[in-house]
TrEMBL record:
It comes from Cesiribacter andamanensis AMV16. This is quinolinate synthase. GO terms for biological process: 'de novo' NAD+ biosynthetic process from L-aspartate. Its EC number is 2.5.1.72. It is an enzyme of class 2 (transferase).
Length: 346
């Protein structure tokens, strides 16, 4: 007999556009059921990012495993507020590190230590110290897509959702913004116009968002002339300059994009962001159509249901060390303040 929980889970997956082979896999439902039970036995919560596969985005209330689904800022807030003794983080390593900084007493597990980030590895704490010597007194704004040792050297962190507000609020006529070059260029246009401030940028980039090109997007705009364009801040500025004005839409964070779709009268959208954000949007707005050039983050896709189950099983056993996030106490202490300042803008 199929349970009500299983039915809700399958319905939500179908609405999110999951492949039929995913829906018909009995091992998937068994893994989901076991994770749900282990969460309750072990007092753990699951935090899941919008770029996770659809089956990891379905909430506990809908028969899935996620206690909270969100963007980097939302997940940081959730990590800072949870009273759970353990967090299993369905995201990438810098996100799990941020959760550990904000909830130092909790055990934080990452289902795959291979879940890295091209932005996070593009810069180190030593690089930030070099920039501070080169530009003494200039405030450092570190994008949340950095490791804890980098955050520890910054004055404040930001996410794509609050970067503009934070940049406007910082003192002086110059800011060091790191590490995303394209996001920095996109922000610079707005910040310069509204505040006159200049950004000193690093040369990092997101290996997903940098793949979007003007010709690719303009081709889709010709095929779908009524569609509005949804573009993440990390997409190259050349793409935005040549495409956004052609069809209308939004340049913003993941949450900005989700909110915009809900408020727009348009029924069709072209998404220039990670593929599985398309699953999120289909689940939230099933009456609307999303054209998604499916560029997947290889790091996010290191996390799946079965690795999440392995991490949950390992909690409170010797195998826990294979998944546990551990940070130097001094780095945790130093990283906490810039992250806390970021949350004040949440």
């Amino acid at each position: 007999m199929i349970s009500t929980t299983s039915t809700r889970f399958a319905h939500q997956l179908r609405q999110m556009g999951a492949d039929e082979h995913v829906l018909s896999n009995p091992k998937l439902q068994q893994a989901i059921d076991e994770i749900r039970e282990l969460k309750r036995q072990k007092g753990a919560v699951v935090l899941s990012h919008y770029y996770m596969p659809a089956e990891l985005q379905v909430t506990d209330a809908d028969g899935g495993i996620a206690d909270f689904v969100g963007d980097s800022l939302g997940l940081s807030v959730a990590a800072s507020q949870t009273r759970a003794r353990a967090i299993v983080f369905c995201g990438v390593k810098f996100m799990a590190e941020t959760a550990k900084v904000l909830s130092p007493a909790a055990t934080v597990l990452l289902p795959s230590m291979k879940a890295g980030c091209s932005l996070a590895v593009s810069i180190s704490g030593e690089d930030v110290r070099f920039l501070k010597k080169k530009y003494p007194g200039v405030p450092v704004v570190a994008y949340v897509n950095t490791y804890a040792e980098t955050k520890a050297e910054a004055d404040i962190c930001c996410t794509s959702r609050n970067a503009l507000a934070i940049a406007k609020a910082m003192p002086g006529d110059q800011l060091i913004f790191l590490p995303d070059l394209y996001m920095g260029r996109n922000l610079q246009t707005r910040i310069k116009a509204e505040t006159g401030k200049d950004l000193i940028l690093w040369q990092g980039s997101c290996e997903v968002h940098e793949q979007f090109t003007p010709n690719q997007i303009m081709g889709l705009q010709m095929m779908y002339p009524e569609a509005e364009l949804l573009v993440h801040w990390e997409v190259p500025d050349e793409v935005i300059m040549r495409t956004l004005s052609r069809s209308g839409g939004i340049l913003g964070s993941t949450t900005d994009i989700i909110k915009y779709v809900g408020e727009s009268q348009a029924q069709q959208f072209i998404l220039a962001s990670e593929c599985d954000l398309g699953a999120t949007l289909r689940g939230l707005y099933p009456q609307k159509e999303f054209v998604v050039p499916c560029i997947r983050c290889p790091h996010m896709k290191q996390i799946d249901v079965y690795r999440t189950l392995a991490a949950m099983r390992a909690l409170d056993t010797p195998a826990e060390t294979d998944f546990r996030i551990e940070l130097d106490e001094e780095i945790c202490r130093k990283a906490y303040l810039p992250i806390r300042r970021m949350l004040d803008f949440a």
